[in-house]
Amino acid sequence: MTGLRPVLAAAFGAAGGAALLRYRRDISHAYARVEALDRLTAVTRFGAMEYLDHGAGEAILVSHGIFHGCDGGLRSVQDTIGTRRVIAPSRFGYLGSAMPRDASVADQADAFVELLDVLGLPTVDAIGISAGTSAAVQLALRHPDRLRHLIISSGSFPGSDTAQAPPEWAKLLYSDPPLWALKRLARPVFARMMGVPEGFPRGVDDARVLTQMLDTIFPVRPRVTGAVFDAYVANPDVNDYPLEELRVPTLIVHAADDPLASYEAARAAGERIPDARFVGLDSGGHLQLGQTQRVRTAVAAFLASGELGDTR
């Protein structure tokens, strides 16, 4: 037994060393991926706001989800928006965007408008994704004259667990090492945390989208300030919004098996928003895996016609 101890120690040491090298390599690649993006910066009274400006045509502004940024915002809509110009800013505290002192979600909405002014865009369509719901809805409430349409995808609405601040200990996970370890050593658990239901991915396309979406939360470190703001300020903020006062044509898209944001809460929000259209997906979870064609069709029809109603 005594003779085994050096062998076991060497084995564990080698395994730990290999894991550390892989961690460093993966995080280095994540930083390189972000640095390779053609990120632009607008100066607002709230500080710097970085953004991606991709494509051509009618513009749509993306309010990204938690742990994302301009990169995740762009990736989230690339398969469903079609041939449009995508303006994907990093919200407060994400990547190269500032976190103003005592920031509010209303401030974020006003910062969006300042970005539109910089870009010379009098009106745009907008999409709020997951934790980006609050800022997108505030934009519609505060500046309805700047929006043609509002889309909420996998939204965090009153009545959803995501609209409640998590326990303080949850912040312990808000860093690269624990999330990287989960991704590498417990991928099903990590995927579940990101809103993927059991039984997914279902095929090559789902697996590709899932991998890309999971990769876009890394590196975590330059997103932590924004993620904490989302979890403890932005998500709970939606509980006090007067959804009945929304006057921008609104489409809500949500999967029934979303394990993060409540489907029932999204439907209830749709009933409160005047003339909102609700598109319920049978499956796909928070990332709406396997639903690309249906979502693309629904979004295109909504943006083209502006007709409102309710559909399942």
Automatic annotation (TrEMBL):
Entries under InterPro entries matching the protein: AB_hydrolase, AB_hydrolase_1, AB_hydrolase_fold
Taxonomy, superkingdom: Bacteria
Ranges where the AB hydrolase-1 domain occurs: 60-288
The keyword Hydrolase appears for this protein: yes
Residues annotated as transmembrane: none
Classification via Pfam families: Abhydrolase_1
UniProt-listed Gene3D superfamilies: alpha/beta hydrolase
Entry keyword annotation includes Hydrolase: yes
Record key words, sorted: Hydrolase
GO MF term list: hydrolase activity
Name of the molecule in the record: Alpha/beta fold hydrolase
Organism field: Gordonia mangrovi
